[in-house]
Amino acid sequence: MAATQQQQQLSMQSRTGRNNQRYGSQGERLVAGIVPLSADKYYVLLIQSTRRGGWVLPKGGWETDEATAQDAAKREAWEEAGIICKVNYDLGLIPERRRPDQLTSQAPKASYHFFEAAVEKQESQWPEMHKRSRQWFTYTQARQALADRPELLDALDRCTMHR
């Protein structure tokens, strides 16, 4: 499907709530995410976390009406970062790495499924543009920015971007 056709189907409304959230066999929240790379693979796009203000990768809950984690990851990339991307690699499952004191009812235990993607289009308007900013980082800059998020560092380290 062409990016323009796909874009016309993209909602400017961000999904909220956890009513349609998928959970794993251990009760963990199933989260899908994207490692969005520039075409030359020298940069990764990070977004600001709405809760903590730091930088994160686009990610969010895989919902029951989404056939695959990849579908959920691409939706999150659109909602949170305003990007249309093409998934190139499945980076696999990443277990929860946060310490128990970092888990909250707002951020419960999760299992992460990340995908590497090439950013094909960066829109000027997107659903969460008023809540988040986005910025391109080199690998070294991204490692520093994600230092307190081991599960996100793991996803970054699994991708094929230039070191």
UniProtKB/TrEMBL annotation:
Listed cofactors: Mg(2+)
Spans of biased composition, class Polar residues?
10-24
Q: Which Pfam families match?
A: NUDIX
Question: Which residues does the UniProt record annotate as the domain Nudix hydrolase?
Answer: 27-160
For the region Disordered, what residue ranges are annotated? 1-24
Quote the cellular component terms of the Gene Ontology held in the record.
Answer: cytoplasm; nucleus
Task: Give UniProt keywords alphabetically.
Answer: Hydrolase, Magnesium, Metal-binding
The protein here is known as: Nudix hydrolase domain-containing protein
This chain's source organism reads Lophiostoma macrostomum CBS 122681
